[in-house]
Structures
1.
Amino acid sequence: MLTDVTRRGLLRAAGAAGVAATAGSAVAASVGVAEAATRAGENLPFYGAHQPGIATPQQPALFLAAFDLETSKVAKLRALMRNWSAAAARMTQGLRVAPDLQSGEVPPGDSGDVDGLLAGRLTVTFGFGARVFTLGGLAGRRPAALQPLPRFAGEEIEARRSGGDLVVQACAEDPAIAFHAVRMLATLGAGTVRLRWTQRGFLPSRYRGDQTPRNLMGMKDGTLNPRPSQPGFAQVVWTGGSDAAWLRDGTYMVFRRIRMNLPHWDSSSRSDQEATIGRHRESGAPLGGSRENDIPNFRARDRNGRFVIPARAHVRLAHPSFNGGIEILRRGYSYDDGVTEIGPLRDGAPHSHAPGFNAGLAFVAFMRDPQAQFVPLQRRLAAQDRLNQYITHVGSAVFVVPPGARQGGYVGETLLG
Amino acid sequence: MLTDVTRRGLLRAAGAAGVAATAGSAVAASVGVAEAATRAGENLPFYGAHQPGIATPQQPALFLAAFDLETSKVAKLRALMRNWSAAAARMTQGLRVAPDLQSGEVPPGDSGDVDGLLAGRLTVTFGFGARVFTLGGLAGRRPAALQPLPRFAGEEIEARRSGGDLVVQACAEDPAIAFHAVRMLATLGAGTVRLRWTQRGFLPSRYRGDQTPRNLMGMKDGTLNPRPSQPGFAQVVWTGGSDAAWLRDGTYMVFRRIRMNLPHWDSSSRSDQEATIGRHRESGAPLGGSRENDIPNFRARDRNGRFVIPARAHVRLAHPSFNGGIEILRRGYSYDDGVTEIGPLRDGAPHSHAPGFNAGLAFVAFMRDPQAQFVPLQRRLAAQDRLNQYITHVGSAVFVVPPGARQGGYVGETLLG
């Protein structure tokens, strides 16, 4: 079946390459239209005002990697971002990261493991951690909102899953394509950066477009996400006039690795689960409503006078109307990562000592100011959310995400150029 | 694009349900044709002479899990295999593992995270480790070929990634579907089994049918795999007349987690890589040949009198013609699993202390007798394979795989029934 799709993709590619050439694509121009036409199906643009992978509809596979700088020289970081941007642009157009040299005496320019595949809607998104702004000349340009996250109640953050000087987010239709992209960038970065942590994620691959994906709890997750087509989207996500000029059209990424105690969740009654989230499992409708997009009625009470959407339900505590209008753009993925010993649970819940799936939510969110958006929201959730009995935050990082690169430029140019 | 595919799947489903009913499918019958018709697209049969997931063309996502028995009672194992088989049959037909009860006062029967998806070519395959045959009444029925694997040269096997009393292999189009299946089976097994290790894997999802997938080394992997349509396939894979009667139409699974030193591989020249494998990277052709399916000429020498396919090349050492005709059915997947410190390498290769991707090959192979097939083959490879400078076996397990279940029966019935 997908063979047909691929074939159709190939048939479309000639047209796509034509469009790219019309748009003056540096990539298509530099590699020749013939090569582009052969491999250019399912491409998303790399160049633009904003980086891709933020407002882009979620692809089903995530590969996220944080790197630490091994240099204190801005020139080396600049060279890295040039190389990374050019490589990302090629790969997002379905091209090898570098054309293979004819000689067998040198390493191939590309690992080749996704040779013959199309770009698969690959996006690559880059971000900078706080230490970037300790490099010579950049100290005064650190944006005020790029601060370490405070300690939140209940979290059990592991250093080996947290922090980092640079982040690369690759999203694609296919986990092989996302992994390949980050691997190639890691290779290009050897000597300048070293790998710190990685985080893979998946979404059910048939949830497309407007359908809200379900997380590992079986709940629709993201119903109230701001949509790029809505007028308030830019105010939620993109940095604007009051920010540093180099950061205009940028954003921030907050990453949290949120482990779920799945055995505990799976042994809870449906009523408990729904009261925890504040939504019906099947429809995703807020409790008391019947459709997913019904506006939650937080005042409604049942015949016993109790809130229909309980006081500590996740949807209530996280809702903008209880948080001074705060919104963030969530772009999270489910993850699983081997077997873990589930330790004692909080809140007097029964203890479980059986090994379980080390699994949960790779929470990725974008916003214009994490100090003003994520921090107060998470403070409130960490303190009160009924969901906390099932989840533990075990990884954390925050990055500033520069604007997109212009054609022929590179991500970070407004800061480093 | 996939929306079209899904829609076509749904349109086909009515027909598929009709076929199932004609074939007397216990599943379709027990849940009602209407439910089956709604969700039954892209189904592979669960019942049959052989278990699915062996001769089945490889789906792109693997989730493999080993469990340890927490019981010494055959009756509990029998009940587990009954429940697991019924659950697997439902899920492979795109149905929830159990119909949801109306009451909110009990846990939902299914975690619901893949609700609304189709079966996605899910297969579930079960196997038994040696300890199953220590349960009362089964001691005399352990097949002779189910022996622990010997220690092989160079391996660094970790207990936490190895062994196990039972194995479940779920393969599907979508990692979410494969994970869901194993998670539901783990939940059903609580009290009888506990999770020991898990192994996820992926293949580039557009390699279908006869196209040989590439591994993380960029090499086509599986060119010489026996094909179900070939006459010798049964002799390679399925247990036959000389085996225990309960095992007829069964097989064995050998699992090896093979870590690849990707930075080392990626810094090797193309000539080195091709001489290591004995094939051309791009075409997959044996060295000296031009097409992937060319028969390797192991006698050919270059003008300096050296073998064109080097003496220690992987394809030569692994080829049936140098191993008394031994073949196995490989069904491996690429994996990545966070960050590892790459230690010193063998064979005088340069040391690398940079953290790298913890990644490699989740080797899964099926054969009628691991002692006669995998063991001699791997002894030879472990001792001589030029590939060993890039790989390390870090996980290992062997399981006997019972025949498929008849309609309404269960996997393992010929042993436990």
2.
Amino acid sequence: MSSAYEAPLHIQLLALEQACRSTGLADLPEVRQLISDVAGSVLESAGKFAREVLSPLNGVGDRSPARLEAGRVVTSPGFSDAYRQFAASGWMSVSAPAEEQGQGLPHLIGVAVSEMWTGANPAFAMCPELAIGAIEALHRHGTVEMRERYLPHLVRGDWTSAMCLTEPQSGSDLSTIRTRAEPDGDAWRLFGRKIYISWGDHDLTENVLHLVLARTPGAPQGVKGISLFLVPKRIPSAGGALADNDIAVLSLEHKMGIRASPTCALALGERGGARGWLVGPLHGGLACMFTVMNVMRLGVAVQSLGIAERAWQLARDYARTRRQGRNAAGPERPIIEHADVRRMLLTMKSLVHAARCLTYTTAASIDVARRAEDEKVRAAGESTAGLLTPLAKAWCSEIAVEVSSLGVQIHGGLGFIDECEASQVYRDARIGPIFEGTNFIQAQDLLGRKILRDRGAALTALLDRMLDAAAVLPAGVAGLGELASGLTSGCHALKRAGGTIIETAAGDANLIGAVGHHFLQWLGVLAGGWQWALTAAEALPRAHTDATARALVDTAGFYASHVLPRATMHEAIVRRGADPVTNAAIAEL
Amino acid sequence: MSSAYEAPLHIQLLALEQACRSTGLADLPEVRQLISDVAGSVLESAGKFAREVLSPLNGVGDRSPARLEAGRVVTSPGFSDAYRQFAASGWMSVSAPAEEQGQGLPHLIGVAVSEMWTGANPAFAMCPELAIGAIEALHRHGTVEMRERYLPHLVRGDWTSAMCLTEPQSGSDLSTIRTRAEPDGDAWRLFGRKIYISWGDHDLTENVLHLVLARTPGAPQGVKGISLFLVPKRIPSAGGALADNDIAVLSLEHKMGIRASPTCALALGERGGARGWLVGPLHGGLACMFTVMNVMRLGVAVQSLGIAERAWQLARDYARTRRQGRNAAGPERPIIEHADVRRMLLTMKSLVHAARCLTYTTAASIDVARRAEDEKVRAAGESTAGLLTPLAKAWCSEIAVEVSSLGVQIHGGLGFIDECEASQVYRDARIGPIFEGTNFIQAQDLLGRKILRDRGAALTALLDRMLDAAAVLPAGVAGLGELASGLTSGCHALKRAGGTIIETAAGDANLIGAVGHHFLQWLGVLAGGWQWALTAAEALPRAHTDATARALVDTAGFYASHVLPRATMHEAIVRRGADPVTNAAIAEL
């Protein structure tokens, strides 16, 4: 029904360079060298793997989801073999630290590569993404023994990992976790039930390392009493033999999308206790888990980007070939020539590019925070990454839902039929706003933690960079003047609104809850405009001779006229504050 | 997992009365009497049927879709029995004309009742909706013999109907239809293939009356050469015996949603020709089919409304019971108390109510056009209905996608799981913007036919009614002053933009294509504000003593602050005209 996923290498490299420049990552000579040496070839080779191995399995996984057999998960046909090739090709280790036998490439490259896995097969791609988070967590918080015993397996990809947070009564609010860990010599025994565990069991590898949040005896109430444990599906002996731990798969969810990704309900400790080892400090579990969570949140931005890119590819290709509707001259035209189809395609493309650049910029900021020599530069990178991570997660995931819906619409009736990949893409996209912290949790993180705590310092710095980008756009080029003025007025308005929220949030318990969503989406729209301003400024000198550069400048103008007007809508809502939300007598409706 | 569908009788009756008043239907004494006599009891009884018979089958149909067996469609378990009860209770005949042995109730009541069928079970509800369209078409365009032989069966519900337009090469553009009809005595023989035929075959009744668009020998090119034929699945003899016609079911589509509704690919005439009879004038098929299409387009508005109402019910009930997150006092709170959840619920509710009132107003306008004694009043009703039908179809179907997505979001991870009805609702909603003319086809109809042809006369009349409604809102009540001012400035701006389009469309071939979508959605947002203004004005005097009236006034204010700002976004896009869409070098992207 449709052609295979094709990695958009040219535009990915362009976005990668843009992120390097705008974050200052390009100022680190070692990184700049690394990127110019390997980015092109790594991306090309990853694109080939995505197209040839992962993309053909995407529909297979949707039609034949993972299933439970004799208490163990059997993955979709072909997934096990694809994973073996994936690990054997070294793809698991791309951005893993060199100290842990990883390739030590920048996260930026890792993210560009992950975009391809998830564009080709989002259900598959979640599995390595979880391992990246676990590698990060064990690298930073694990004991020496843990790092020696477990990390090489994760980095090689011969084991994978899962993140066990949610329990039936404990979703967005982790303070009510009931899974308990009891001391047992130098280890612990865990008892409890976890739900919605992505890739919580499978047959791709012989072991799964669970990272489990649990409560220890006498621990303080709430999130301050939660600890993180490494609980392997099978426990390795010193000699390397594996013995089953006490973890049972109770059931698998049947889901709307990403159906090849097994979502497990797990029971720990039904036969005496699942053996686990403490990761990080006792009662410091939430902070350690956030190492994984932040990777996964950026991972959702990447996943959403990949899904949106795929929606765009399918819609563009369909619009080029499907003929419908005559023009005055007589012959039927490919629907890409119809203005409304162009409008939808340009909306998709302008959002996908904005999402890609924003996601890459987040990754590049993390690289700056890790790799810069100057402590101040590292701190600035850290604070930018902190601000951009929830933004990228929540904005890109909403974008993916919108873009995949436009993709369905362009396909017409076919878009509603299972055999059409656009319909799967639409279902797959819907998880993004929900998991790894709902999009409201992201808005709360953005406003409540990242903006209120430093009283807007990081936000102001970001908005100033956005204003700088707007300032260099030439007013005389169609669309770009509009982009500059819309972005400039938007940034000033958001700065003011942010200031008001900082002043009043303490006295208005519902303010962040009531306006957080629209505040985040507003910043997202502006950040997308910022990225388009950077792209347009770079492309403009080549626009007369280079058709792709011309198209980029045009699409920047389209973003200004068709997407940027959302900013004033979000602004109007944010400025009304909490009253409309809190005053309504909703119970009577 | 969830409670049964519960018809919102109180708010439906309120919307019904509002539509009667605002369209002038209430000025027709006979209709007013009819409505006050029967609306309450008919709605109550329909609500009971929807809750008890149709709602329990909604999930069944999703899990066990219609299937093909030995060349015939077998419907989902329970559907056949439910349909028998439906027909036996006389539900098929509610708004059918009295001359055809129908109950002759206003379309307004028919639409309110249809909302319940589709709220409870949208896949089921499509089947009677198609028959309503066919009854209308045969009543208006059928021969006396046709009306005697076929109509009583449709009105009693012992036969159903299907609408056969689309062919593989002919979707939005019907000019390329290839199915041909050859004369055969007093009848015709049809040959061709039709796809996407909803309820094109089934086991609910012993016969299906197909309304088929086809081309006759020597007919003019394009849509002016298309004729409409009645082609029964089984041909009744004078004595009542049924003989199989030459129509084969080639396949059934596997769909994202409304899975219990069998979507057939049909072959006509593989064994010598399917016998058919001409409906309406030769080569006048498209106009006759539009009798059905207009019913079905309003039907999509109703379906979208029902789906959105169901999404709201499920989300509200879940938010009342699901506890998550503590407040300062300690205990966990039902999530309906969290500001962001309230924001989502209020967005849903404010959109659902606007969609209901707009849909009912469209139906009431049709009743005015049919039943008013004064010819001018009838003509005004006709032109309002003509304007509102594409608006209601396209706006309400976009709303349903949005509202059902918010419903998923409120359910969190559960919303992504098949067993959660909210997830089905999300998939079911996605067809609305596509079928019975894509939403762009609606925008083209609205601007190209309904607005350009009378040079904005009907639009101006509608906007003036909206301005009148805004003018009577008191400025001093929180939210209502905002509603009045937003609605007023929006109507003036849209009037200006409409005027510009009327002046320039003839010289700008891409204008309607480029701005049609946003123009329609803009008018929709304002029309929703109009309906909320009418509701708020009526509720306000009771708001101090009646909690429901209070909640309605509050929600009108919420619409003003959170939904109405979309108007300025659509305005900005429309005012930019075609350039951003047509100038972009999309081929290079």
